[in-house]
Design brief:
The protein is mostly beta strands. It contains four helices and 28 strands. Helix content is 8%, strand content 41%.
Length: 429
Amino acid sequence: MDHKRMFCTIAALAVACMGFTAALRADETCNSPYMSRLIKGQEDYVYVWTLGVQGLGDGSDKLVTVDVNPKSKSYGKVIYSVSTGGRAEAHHMGFTDDRRHIWAGGLSENRIWVFDIATDPANPKLVRTITDLGDKSGFLGPHTYYALPGRMLVQALSNTRDKGGATGMVLYNNQGKQLDSYAMPAEGGGYGYDLAVNPKKNVMLTSSFTGYANYMRPLGELINDGEAMKNFGSTMVLWDVKAIKPTKVLTVPGAPLEIRWSLNANDNWAITATALTSKLWLVKQDAKGAWIAKEVGTIGDPSKIPLPVDISITRDGKGLWVNTFMDGKTRYFDLSNPEAPKQTYEKVTGKQVNMISQSWDGKRVYITSSLLANWDKGGADNEQFLRGFAWDGKELAQKFEVDFTKEKLGRAHHMKLGSEVLRSSAAGG
């Protein structure tokens, strides 16, 4: 099947898939809409992708399983970990469309690790290492892993030529064979970061950050380098999903990071937060059908550089969680009117906070602490944790904490939810 036919099929399948996920009212809210296997109810595990720390345990990056089922005797405890055998600035990960595997990578190298989570969900197994991303594409630092039917689209942050911000995306099949690569548009510097698809509109949206030469530097040193601070993304790109071709470059100053499309079937908009300017931006169609980007809100006090990092949208598209790294706050915004988000709640949830994931029913929220090895705070502020919270619509109530430093497991970064209901049968799942 050629790529055009394949993506026509993808677009058709996605509509049904999105309706399926909404009907189940299960799973976490930030997964690809193409996933076919979902958690129906209470998740059993949180998988945490951790950055290895030299001298701490074996010093390697790890996939760590934490038991999060309140009925379990090991609730809130680490029950398993699997090591990669090295350090590569572990960062993000993503499920394949059949949810049998997690793909995870690091920002300092071009390796991608593939873990089997279907055979034994509590005890993931490293089954494959992909090493050809840089050799075949010229891109460096795989970041986002986005499931397509039978495929995985990987967004990189940098390149092997000068380790700058010009980058692109790489398409693999689920078996790890590289199929194609796509350069980001040169307009705006060619930066990349996250990607997300709206199948109803046949559009994909990508965001932009910075390259290896910046994100691998100590944060204090970087901030004081005026020239280096100019090398951050200021655009988002619209793509035709079927063809994987850019159709429009949108100006979004300040390094737009995570992208979240509204999951409401009647909505056709996405939201993002800009790391350097602390703004919320809406990407939508105007009255004439043209896609536009507009600033719609402010996160904290931009003069104090709270540094918005991860966001998580509610399943009804009416609420948004925002984590800000520097002040350690978790904020909730009412998105009833996405043109004018209104903050209704905030809480200090750590001395530094990064990723946030919520259950599909919105009753449970999970937060991790690490941003980048050279950007994390020092001393007593260098907290490395997974914290689980209950949310009743009014207050975040902490239910457990895993101290990753104490457990000698490294720096806690990205999360994905797992469940025993997704265990494969001996015949193949």
